[in-house]
């Protein structure tokens, strides 16, 4: 079967570590099932893997990909929850493509318990955008950020998959949403999603109750300054650098909560899909590639000139 794999690690030129070609069919342990992948999506996680971050050399070659929707041998249309219990990992879990082969293949083996029925109202492509970036944004907003008691949200770096998901979800939940981007074109798209576009570092008209941070060092000081008393600053990533300075006086004086966040739980993915169907929200998809153009899809993601998800259609 065809698959996209990391066959090396290249910190500076990650695409050089990508190999697309035929690999053996997946091994399917007891309690697992082989899912025929119909659609998948890329995440920054896949680029980190190609750089060797979280994927040491002794696990190579490794099929990449966390996100997919597809069909079981029984013909059921499913979405794959990518977090697998894993005693070998200090976190007690791993994401598909970290220790078990990932979703960027024609077939992927997953525990049956990780399958969620795909709602009829969502296409395979839409559903394949949800399990990592959208679930992460949902968990950050709803569970960590307690969005039900918030009125305003700031999303930093609103071009990425997590950030566009956070903007769309927070707008749909009726919050006032501010979102930063360095790029005027992306700020225009942010506005079209219903958020107030903001230049990086600019003063907001009000302080916000939740900050969604996935950029890291370049935006973190701004995130702290924009936080209202008692606000939650929820951090899931650090694309722009992971070493930031925290003004502890502001942290305690404003009673801020600084919260780390990783993915979300399986029932949250089901709740997220129900929310999308109920509110008629669809994932923001930047571009869709056929699987034969997966290397182009990676190059596009790496360029940073992306607004939303980069998706893969396995039927083309
Ligand atoms: N913890 C988890 O469970 C989890 C889950 C998913 C993702 N993540 C992490 O979250 C991060 C976001 O991932 P993503 O795929 O959604 O998006 P991404 O492709 O990493 O980009 C996010 C945004 O960061 C901004 N950015 C990048 N470099 C910057 C810099 N030097 N200065 C200022 N802004 C910069 C860009 O915004 P503009 O160009 O618009 O300014 C970009 O749109 C990644 O680090 C990823 O690994 C974590």
Automatic annotation (TrEMBL):
Gene3D superfamilies: Medium-chain alcohol dehydrogenases, catalytic domain (3.90.180.10). SUPFAM superfamilies: GroES-like, NAD(P)-binding Rossmann-fold domains. InterPro entries: ADH-like_N, ER, GroES-like_sf, NAD(P)-bd_dom_sf, Zinc_ADH-like. Residues 13-312 form the Enoyl reductase (ER) domain. It comes from Paractinoplanes durhamensis. Signal peptide: none annotated. This is Zn-dependent oxidoreductase. Pfam families: ADH_N, ADH_zinc_N_2.
